[in-house]
Design goal:
This is Type I site-specific deoxyribonuclease, HsdR family. By secondary structure, this protein is mainly alpha-helical. Helix content is 67%, strand content 0%. It starts with 10 loop residues before the first helix and ends in a 7-residue tail after the last helix.
């Protein structure tokens, strides 16, 4: 017999991680930014929606590389 537990996703945690990543990149603390990037990747990999996980990871990559937000 298989028991399935209900899974809830804490999007507040994701928001906090993205904010911390953006602050670390802005302050040029790339070691901390890499840690936040890894935590966000782990979060995304745990999602059932693979398309949404890919979108999260693409956004995080852009933030980490400094191409988001665009200047101007």
């Amino acid at each position: 017999m298989i028991h399935v537990k209900q899974i809830s996703v804490n999007y507040d945690y994701l928001t906090e991680l993205i904010e911390a990543l953006m602050n670390a990149v802005h302050e040029k603390r790339m070691d901390a930014a890499a840690d936040y990037r890894e935590k966000i990747n782990d979060f995304a990999m745990a999602l059932d929606d693979r398309q949404y996980a890919k979108q999260i990871n693409n956004a995080v990559d852009a933030i980490y590389k400094g191409t988001y937000p665009p200047e101007g």
